[in-house]
């Protein structure tokens, strides 16, 4: 499959001007520029993609769910069928290892297939029905029925760190398409070739399944121009974004300044605190140190759930943990960061931490001259009072960089957790003898995080029904939803109530004899 | 029960300065000022109410749901027990008739009791559980469980037009308290005495049920000072508001400009289109005209769901409808508007419509000198092209004022519906011979409105499980939720996932043997 370097707009593939500069991927291992050169979308491309999406919305949203499910499955099959071409291009563009990318491809296709199941089960429609009570006094009750309907066309921003699972056909795209919303993807500029390959797989599925043309488009361009133009467009009704805090906040401001504000689901920033409770730490300090550094350095630490903050009580057990973790950091093999920009930001973040008063370096990883964008992992330490008093220590450093915060009491751990911003995850390592202390911390963790782990590490995010990958600001812009798992379809839905709906006009989901066999709440009972 | 004219902050009742002016209700029938004079809350009162709410949050949110349910029921019992004192004060402050206020009191107490039921059923927790798969390859799966948790302290703004059901102990307060969120109410300045009576009933219930002190506070003050201060306060985590478009938009801007933005559920503006389909109109033009005017003039038209826009095809049937409706408007008895401000805005809105080109007055109601703030109902007519071309005709005029829009084809009805902003409701009057046309309109109505009615009038809003009182911007600021019915509890919740949660630390809702008997989704099945 040859890369064309074209925007995919509806069923067409079209080049564009690269006069003002185009987009090329850079291999973060070798530093080489990868062909082809991709054009930058302008107002013409945005207009056409948005109008096609708008035109597609009503027909697409009203298709039988089985047809939408078949489309998602065809997209998954097409992505699988690209085979090594996809993983090899993704390796070249991201520097991520093959096994990781194969796993990520499986996850991406699995997400699409999961949403096909979600559609067929129909639970996501949230049907509630109340029968008419014509004899009720003083006023009769008409029949009432509620179900979820899709919001409208959605703009999705590909993320740098998951070139498949949070990108062109990633979680937000799968959830929005499942919900019945056409999707326009802004490709991440770090992996345009991977984006094109996946985009063509989705485009081909849309064609072969006879979807309305505008159900999917893929555009290349900058965040400040293409990204802003999409979020401003009145036809776009919701936005999915995974990236930096500044990037997410800028999109949110634009969305809120529209004549009609729209929801923005931005995942932005998290340092993912891990609390080591004393009995567990005493029993397993060295094993915890090794496991922590394995999680910290996986994928050069480029995960939104990377464990960036360790909290524990002072003492010899903590010193054993720090010593072991420091040794593991020093031994960690250098890995490539995804892009030159991320490399620069990592270096700046590390330098900023190094410069903070009362913060000391525990260890750093090996340097290398063999990578264009290397990550040299860093581990720092400080005290609770220093952490609480210095907001600069609360910022995420994207990449393998963490801070151990030494606390002198449970109360001080509680103060640190209270001073912290919202997080995607929070973790406790504990054994039974720690449960009483854990009971005191759990309410604070629930308030600050979307997922709470016990005796695990936050870097794995299971795609399932119970997952919450989300959390209070600034980890996300909307703590009421998740970006991973079947519940993420709710991002792109809103409820509608039908009052005294004639049976002949009722969609199958609301018909009296329930022809789709949906799970429904009827008169308050399931 | 004597009115004290005091803020209710936690379990205390405290006066305040009225040096800079205070708040007095005005009887809109007689124009007389009603004692007592209420103080205006300043930073001291906001600080104390917010800190108490913050302190109450964790203990309140972690109470057994049965305790929260008992508190809601005690509040309902206490409101009922105020008896005629409450309805009489509300009549004096609003000019609304006794029967309406008695009905509204029943609805208000019914809402509180409905949420007690919702709590006991536990469905609102949305529990999803997935068991561990320790043998899974290549990676084992930890156990995962998701449930909803409350957002934190909530600020609720009382609405002018429902002094009980959308005010101190109205829908948002009931939903937030049920969700586990402490509530601070900003009393609407038009009915401070009604607010105090209801506030004391809730305060007394909180005391007698041994709730944490800060679970409820009631403050008096202006939107620009007290309202803004509450929305800016970092301890407030969500806002419920029903009122004007300008007022809602101002709160939204403030909430979004916070270092940590928060959700604002503002219900603002809706003209509630009603489409009269041709066969039904032909058969029942006169009856429809009478029923329309009854809905239009009920409560002087001061409903967010007031039918402000009639759409129909030109022809003799429409002329019969207009003639009948015009006659009914001319006969409509004058009724008081709620406040001098609403009276002024109504007069301005009517004057603005009168001045628009190609808009003609069909009829207006009787004038009166016996009311301080009279509503003289108005009915206007225009053409579809005029409506589509003039945004001023799309604005809500709060009160009994409506516009008939004459269309020359179904396509033109579709154009009008497409040109329209988001609405709380949309209605079709139809008979079987109209179903084919209704099928063409229904998708457009679903896109524009939160509730779609058939052969009814939108002014009644049933409190039940299936209701959606919400809709796309500007009818509300967040179309993904409802402000009426049991689903409104979701406004104040967010999901949390627990990974490998030890059974000993699990809340009852997530324990393996389901001691609360909750409806739960387990491994993808209910």
UniProtKB/TrEMBL annotation, chains A, B:
Q: Which InterPro entries match?
A: Ald_DH/histidinol_DH (IPR016161), Ald_DH_C (IPR016163), Ald_DH_N (IPR016162), Aldehyde_DH_dom (IPR015590), Aldehyde_DH_Superfamily (IPR050740), ALDH_KGSADH (IPR044151)
**One MF term in the entry's GO annotations:** 2,5-dioxovalerate dehydrogenase (NADP+) activity
Q: Which reaction does it catalyse?
A: 2,5-dioxopentanoate + NADP(+) + H2O = 2-oxoglutarate + NADPH + 2 H(+); 2,5-dioxopentanoate + NAD(+) + H2O = 2-oxoglutarate + NADH + 2 H(+)
Q: Which principal EC class is assigned to this enzyme?
A: oxidoreductase
Pfam families from the entry? Aldedh
Keyword set, alphabetical order: Oxidoreductase
Stated EC number for the protein is 1.2.1.26
- Matching Gene3D superfamilies: Aldehyde Dehydrogenase, Chain A, domain 1, Aldehyde Dehydrogenase, Chain A, domain 2
The cross-references to SUPFAM superfamilies, in alphabetical order and at most eight, read:
ALDH-like
Aldehyde dehydrogenase domain: residues covered: 22-471
Family under the similarity heading: Belongs to the aldehyde dehydrogenase family.
User: Under what name is this protein listed?
Assistant: 2,5-dioxovalerate dehydrogenase
């Amino acid at each position: 499959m040859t890369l064309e370097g074209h925007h995919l707009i509806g069923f067409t593939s079209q080049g564009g001007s690269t006069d003002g500069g185009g987009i090329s991927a850079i291999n973060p291992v070798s530093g080489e520029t990868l062909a082809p050169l991709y054009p930058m979308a302008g107002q013409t491309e945005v207009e056409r993609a948005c109008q096609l999406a708008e035109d597609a919305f009503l027909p697409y949203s009203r298709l039988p769910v089985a047809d939408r499910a078949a489309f998602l499955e065809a997209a998954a099959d097409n992505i699988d069928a690209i085979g090594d071409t996809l993983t090899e291009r993704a390796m070249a563009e991201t520097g991520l290892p093959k096994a990781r990318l194969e796993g990520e491809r499986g996850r991406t296709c699995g997400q699409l297939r999961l949403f096909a199941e979600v559609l067929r089960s129909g639970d996501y429609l949230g049907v509630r029905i109340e029968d008419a009570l014509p004899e009720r006094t003083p006023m009769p009750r008409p029949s009432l029925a509620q179900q979820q309907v899709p919001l409208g066309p959605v703009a999705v921003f590909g993320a740098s760190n998951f070139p498949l699972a949070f990108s062109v056909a990633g979680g937000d795209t799968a959830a929005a398409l499942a919900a019945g919303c056409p999707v326009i993807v802004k490709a991440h500029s770090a992996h345009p070739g991977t984006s094109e390959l996946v985009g063509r797989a989705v485009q081909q599925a849309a064609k072969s399944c006879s979807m309305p043309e505008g159900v999917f488009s893929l555009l290349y361009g900058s965040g400040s121009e293409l990204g802003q133009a999409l979020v401003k467009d009145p036809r776009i009704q919701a936005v999915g974004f995974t990236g930096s805090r500044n990037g997410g906040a800028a999109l949110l401001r634009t969305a809120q300044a529209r004549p009609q504000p729209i929801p923005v689901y931005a995942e932005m920033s998290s340092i993912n605190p891990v609390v080591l409770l004393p009995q567990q730490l005493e029993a397993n300090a060295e094993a915890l140190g090794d496991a922590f550094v394995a999680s910290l350095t996986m994928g050069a630490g480029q995960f939104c759930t990377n464990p960036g903050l360790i909290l524990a009580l002072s003492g010899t057990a903590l010193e054993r943990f720090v010593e072991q973790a420091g040794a593991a950091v020093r031994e960690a093999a250098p890995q490539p960061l995804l892009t030159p920009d991320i490399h620069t930001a990592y270096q700046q973040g590390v330098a900023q931490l190094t410069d903070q008063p009362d913060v000391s370096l525990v260890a750093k990883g090996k340097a290398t001259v063999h990578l264009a964008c290397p990550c040299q992992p860093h581990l720092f330490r400080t005290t609770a009072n220093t952490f609480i008093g210095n907001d600069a220590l609360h910022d995420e450093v994207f990449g393998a960089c963490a801070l151990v915060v030494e606390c002198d009491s449970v109360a001080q751990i509680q103060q640190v957790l209270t001073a912290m911003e919202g997080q995607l995850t929070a973790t406790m390592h504990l054994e039974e003898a720690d449960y009483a202390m854990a009971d005191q911390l759990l309410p604070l963790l629930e308030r600050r995080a979307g997922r709470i782990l016990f005796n695990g590490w936050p870097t794995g995010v299971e795609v399932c029904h119970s997952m919450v990958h989300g959390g209070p600001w600034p980890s996300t812009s909307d703590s009421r939803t998740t970006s991973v798992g079947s519940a993420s379809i709710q991002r792109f839905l809103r409820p509608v109530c039908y009052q005294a709906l004639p049976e002949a006009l009722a969609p199958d989901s609301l018909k009296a004899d329930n022809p789709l066999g949906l799970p429904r709440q009827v008169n308050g009972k399931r």
